[in-house]
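ugh finaly. both done.
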Amino acid sequence: MARDFSWIRPEPWGIHVIPADCWIDPSRPVDRALVTHGHADHARGGHGETVATPETLAIMKLRYATCEGAVPVAYHETLSLQGGVSATYIPAGHVLGSAQILLEHAGERIVVTGDFKRRADPTCPPFEVTPCDVLITEATFGLPVFRHPPVEHEIAKLLSALAANPDRCVLVGAYALGKAQRVIAELRRAGHVEPIYLHGAMERMCRLYEELGVDLGDLRLVSDAAKGALAGRVVLAPPSALNDRWSRRLPDPVTAMASGWMRVRQRARQRMVELPLVISDHADWDELTQTVIDVNPAETWITHGREEAMLRWCQLHQRRARALALVGYEDEDD
């Protein structure tokens, strides 16, 4: 007998879980929001109640000053919501605190992945495959052209550029939540123990990561550095700072950017990036399609990205699928 899963309804501003009268990652304030992670296109302030992992709630408190109505839920903890719905938060591997949300009602299981990746990341727990009837997946890099290289390869490129230019610094543009901390942790894993310098806008999130148990090593502020101290150093800054007045104080920087979008040469040229680093916190094409195979849902619902290509892939593989076309989601500087 065909099922329509009518108890969960995609709306333009979020996913409505009707019996529980709650929303997943809504783009406008609601009475009860189930939030997958702390990026601004998923986590918004102003909700009556915000249900998320403790790490995501801490990130939201720092970024959006949201603390009223916070309801923490640990990984693998199951909450009983009204209307006979239960919700279980499962690691998504995207950034610290990120979660897939498994919803169960009337014998049916629906997993909302939020954003996710399948690669190992020293700053957060790995993605867990969760069987379900409906998989709601992102498709940020949902085109076959996006096949991310091993992160070790990209970190080696960064360190090689550093060694080859001892009188310059390597200035890495990186998203302030998740990407910056991952780049730092991967540099440490590669044996880089030297101080890493931060733009002031990066400091609070890095310190929060440390408070939450992620060791990032010796971090210092560019503003505190003595003249000449930045030569031969890695400097991290928001992508918007790569070519602005702030960067002019740096010693002839090798301009780099860590993003899955660096696979697209035109994007690197537009940002005047000398050293593109293809480091992504999202699943690439192979990981997206493999996740559908691994989870093996009865239906796949696609959102947040290149929906058409993923939809076509599902059709070619005899898998039921639909595109959700939610609003309020943006291309992060990944």
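ok and the 2nd:
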Amino acid sequence: MATAQVETPFGTLGVAASARGVVEVSLTGAVLDDDTPGADSPEAAAIAQEATAQFAEYFAGQRREFDLPLDCPLFGEDTFRARALMALREVGYGQAVTYGELAAMAGSPRAARAAGTACSTNPLAIIIPCHRVLPAGGGVGSFGASLGSYAGGCEMKRWLLSIEGRQD
């Protein structure tokens, strides 16, 4: 497993990659560490390096989509969590959905709380944009409406939404 870090306005972002793709993105900087001999292959290192370059572009406002291979076992599961996170990949740059809308997109319209749990356990932060999920009636406007929870904190969520042009 190759690891890399990216400095952001909110601290260090950690990236872990295998030879097949990005495995984890951590808002706290700490990622999986696999010291198995040969785990840090040149292919994994190249993917981790490309991920750091794309994150730097994103944080500079120069990238709207990530073009990275992903190696997430979660995508092979038939669970609500997997369906919710896969559906979340369809929420575009500058867009937002509510937890209830995400639940409906994942096939369970009454599972808004479960959608929140899926977001809180997202292994690929920002690439799978859980920052684009807001509580019903939430927003990032000047009235201080709740943005909901976010692993990087509300200020980071507000900032990510604002660089994407989301100002409602």
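summary for the 2nd one i guess: Helices lie at 42-59, 80-88, 99-105, 112-120, 154-163.
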